[in-house]
Amino acid sequence: MSTSLISYPLRSRHIHSLPPEMITDSFWYLSFTEVRYAAQVCQRWRDLGIDHPIFWRYIEATSITPGALELLRARIGQSKGRPFTFKVDVKGNSRVVERDLIDIIGAALHNVGDLSVSLDALVLMDLFAMLKYKAPKLKRLHLKLYSQDRCVPRIPLWYNVLGDIPGGLEFIHLDDILLDQGAEVMPCFTNVTYLEHCLPPSIEANFPAFVFRLCPSLKKFIFRCGRVTYGDPFTEADVEAISRLEFFCIDIAEAVSRAEFISRVPLNRVREVTIARVLDPDSVYDFLAPLRSPFLFGFSLNRPPLSDSKQTFDIVVQDYRSRQRRTFAQFRSDYEHKPHAGEESCINALLENEEFHAQILTLSCAASLFPLMAPHLDYYKAVETFILTLDDMLCLDPAAPYSLPRASFRFTGLQLLCLRTRHDFVYVDAQDIVHFMDRVAPTCAALELRRVVLTGTTRLVTERYDLV
Length: 468
Hints:
- Residues 12-59 form the F-box domain.
- This is F-box domain-containing protein.
- This protein is α/β, with parallel strands linked by helices.
- The protein has a domain at 15-55: Monooxygenase (Up-down Bundle).
- Helices cover 25% and strands 24% of the residues.
- It is built from 15 helices and 21 strands.
- The strands form three sheets. It has a 17-stranded mixed β-sheet.
- Helix 7 (95-108) links the parallel strand 2 and strand 3 (112-120).
- The longest helix has 14 residues, at 95-108.
- The termini are far apart.
């Protein structure tokens, strides 16, 4: 044994002798409440705890008790000029909200980077008055008003919200709040690239062409309401503004209004458009008019924030050459059984078209949706390429591989089956792949694996199929 090792002073180690970096990294595994308890251990941990990002960077207010408000002030003060995320969600009207909580939100405006405020509609005027102050670091804003039966106040968002000069605001989400159609300019909207405007299904609203005037930089627009009406014809400026959109999502509760939207609004040059709910067959094909075959056709889970993927899913049609995409957001309940005789069908017209399959290059489906969609694919048995996306579970343990769907369906002309995942990789048992191929494509000889790792007896796959 070396002399230097013998002479090294051996002494007991204590938790208080840990380097601050180790304690700070450990706090990342704790919730805010746990960090608050840990900060009570000693003065050193208190200093590290209250300066940890969990304490000051991600702030949520759901209570208006005196203690909760005092802690809220302390957390905001600890940000010390650094941008932070602030979420306020308090239902019901109270003098405490008007007198204290609104003031706290106003005091946070100067440094907040991501602000979400959900309050009772009765405090609307106080909320708008507070929002007139500048928020130079604000990038994302979400405002929501609670009211009985979602009765939307008729007072629109003030034109001078967040000051009278353009800021860095890029993302806006408004729930049950009207925008001023007569406003020529709203400075804080100048640099907005994403706008989501949601109104109740009971509301009738004019098509919001004025939004493109208020948001000259707009790239993504989501609009929800009950019924859409139209005033003056679209001007060249309106058409040009709509064409600049990269993504446009519309959710209209009334069926007739959905059909009118497709026939009236110039969507031909918009790269990606999503429409929610059921469409009549004529509207389905009018919606697809800008696209040219061959198509990439598939069924996928909804992408946030469009809707709840547990209740809905997307039918996607994409032009292979131009990459323009049209998406139908559908309710899963409409596809759980085939309509009975005399029952109105809610199934998308493309699934009842005997000829559409000849125009598609590939058919794709999320694995979690395959059991739901298989009974509706009778006209698609002759497709040549099928892509199954392994989506509902991340299997990184070779001892517990991904389980392929057990749905009974058989392709008759399949030449290539592709298994893929959008994760880094996923384990799938070779025997499970063979059983799946025997069920859905017994004559298919080519198999493509994208980020799929075989486990088990891999020769069952490698000797039987031409791997791509």
